[in-house]
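Minimal example, chain plus NAP.
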Amino acid sequence: MNSLKNDIGFIGAGNMAGALIAGLINGGLDPKEIIASSPEDSHLLALNTEFGIKTTKDNLEIGRNCNTIVIAVKPHIVNSVLNELSDLINAKQHLIISIAAGIRIKDIQKHLKGGQRIVRAMPNTPASIGKGVSALCANENCSDEDLKISRGVFESVGATCVLVEKSLDLYTSLIGSGPAYIFYLVEALMESSKELNFEESEIKNLLLDMIIGSAELAKQSSDSPGTLRKKVTSPGGVTERALEVFKEEKLKSTIQKAMKAATKRSIELGDK
Ligand SMILES: NC(=O)c1ccc[n+]([C@@H]2O[C@H](COP(=O)([O-])OP(=O)(O)OC[C@H]3O[C@@H](n4cnc5c(N)ncnc54)[C@H](OP(=O)(O)O)[C@@H]3O)[C@@H](O)[C@H]2O)c1
């Protein structure tokens, strides 16, 4: 993570800030170049003890000392944090990166002076273990360098892509919420596995290893997921029978319907 030229500050010292800080330090950033703020002593002490970063209870200290500011508070706190910092933040010095779910760039801009460089990021929960997928949307004031800095932050906790903001609702329904769909699949398979008489933790781990192995195979293979599926599906065999039931039950169109409904909900929540 060499693209950061100056200190990076995190406003909010919770789960996602901790994950990004861990990623940045594992990627080689000097802990002395990172500062985090939060009202809660325990959060700050934990980050200070674990990573040796600087901490403060004063959000303004982040604004005064850092050129890159990551807004990592819960969405309903974002407005008050931006209002607190608005006199200090200026487009020349600061790149603002917000990870607050559902808060649009224009809503961040409203609280700041004109011309502000703002990146909105959407990490998913596996980012907390360095295996996330994050999307970034930059406003028109951001330079290539701003995007490079932002990519560096999120690539430290997984794969990262860049999108236009209007695509973020569909992205959120597919990938932001995606881990929940995998957990749901595992739950359903676990419920179908009762007669195996495995310990719950044993069957859970076997199913998860199956998912990880399948995902790795699909990543490494030049075959499409559809071709890989066909390769596992012998005519008249076990897999074919299960897939026939999926088809009869219109599973594919149910998934497409669910993605449309989730995208609509993401738009509604952003409008609120
Ligand atoms: N966790 C995820 O997987 C994930 C994924 C995508 C996006 N996000 C987004 O990331 C953001 C943070 O989520 P999180 O899960 O990390 O939440 P979290 O663990 O609750 O962390 C929020 C942090 O903000 C602090 N805080 C509260 N008020 C503050 C203030 N006025 N000034 C500075 N800090 C303040 C909290 O301190 P106190 O506890 O003392 O209040 C806490 O340290 C959210 O907006 C969420 O939408 C999270």
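Strands lie at 8-11, 34-37, 54-56, 68-71, 95-98, 117-122, 132-138, 158-162. The first strand starts at residue 8 and ends at 11.
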